Amino acid sequence: VLLLSQSNTAQFRLTASVLGPELNQLRDLKAIGGNAEFFALAALAAGNNGLANRFQRVPDIEGGPEEKAYLQAWLNGIRIVNGSDRSVASSKTVSSVLAEEASDQKSVQTAQMLNTFLAFDGVLSTNAVRYLAGAASDALSLGTEIKPANKVVILANLRAGSQGEALIRVIGNLGPNPSSINSVDLNEVIRVLVSNGFESEARSIALEG
Predict the structure, then answer these.
(1) According to DSSP H, which parts of the chain are helical?
(2) Do the beta carbons of residue 15 and residue 2 sit within 8 Å?
(3) What pLDDT, in 10s, does the model give residues 41-96?
(4) Roughly how many angstroms between the first and final C-alpha of the chain, as a whole number?
(5) Whole-angstrom Cα distance, residue 180 to residue 177?
(6) Between 199-208 and 163-174, two packed helices, what is the crossing angle to 10 degrees?
(7) Burial of 162 by CB count in 10 Å (0-12 exposed, 13-18 middle, 19+ buried)?
């Protein structure tokens, strides 16, 4: 069920929350199999960082499954985006592994994740910068664009102290699925929110994007 829900962030989060008690009881290495990182992702989606850490460390246990480097880096990337890890060293290390391990099928999500690091002042590794400058750069222009005028009005409302109006416009422009928005435009909105005191909201949007 979790796998089928993964394409829809909201549904994945809901499903993960519902199955949280079952995941918490799952300790048999054979039952976990090669899904340790995926279960860790589900735990993070449900807001259970402790459980996510436990699943993420399963490959380190003797007799445990083989570690999946890309998924491990992706999990660490989520922690950078949600603000639980703000280390420059982590940002460089995680971005390096993502760029190194990304398959062609994951180029879009990898480029968007790396770009999201930048929205929160993350520092990318040299090979991650090369990755963004290469063929993966096309991924940043995918999705629905936010009209420049709308971005200007959002900023103007925030500067004028009309936070409610600004947030309503943000929601209206992003719609129910922020992941459908052009990555560059989404980052611009995120940066505006952060710089005007709405970091928590910005990180929530980034996690949905």
Answers:
(1) 2-5, 9-18, 20-25, 29-32, 36-45, 49-56, 69-82, 88-101, 107-119, 126-133, 148-159, 163-174, 183-195, 199-208
(2) yes
(3) 989 888 888 999 999 999 998 888 889 999 999 999 999 999 999 999 999 999 99
(4) 21
(5) 6
(6) 10
(7) middle
Contact, 188 vs 207, CB < 8 A? no
Q: Among 97, 170, 165, 174, which residue's Cα sits nearest to residue 143? A: 174
pTM for the model:
0.88
**Bridge partners, residue 144, by sequence:** 181
Q: How far does CA 123 lie from the centroid of its chain?
A: 16
Indicate the SS3 state at residue 175. Answer: coil
CA distance 154 to 59: 45
Instruction: Report residue 78 as tokens.
Output: 């989520």
Give φ, ψ of 144 to 5 degrees: -75, 130
Interhelix angle 107-119/69-82, rounded to 10 degrees, is 30
Is residue 78 a contact partner of residue 113, using CB atoms and an 8 Å limit? no
Q: How far apart are CA 99 and CA 40, in angstroms?
A: 21
**Which residues touch 147 (CB under 8 Å, ≥6 apart)?**
none
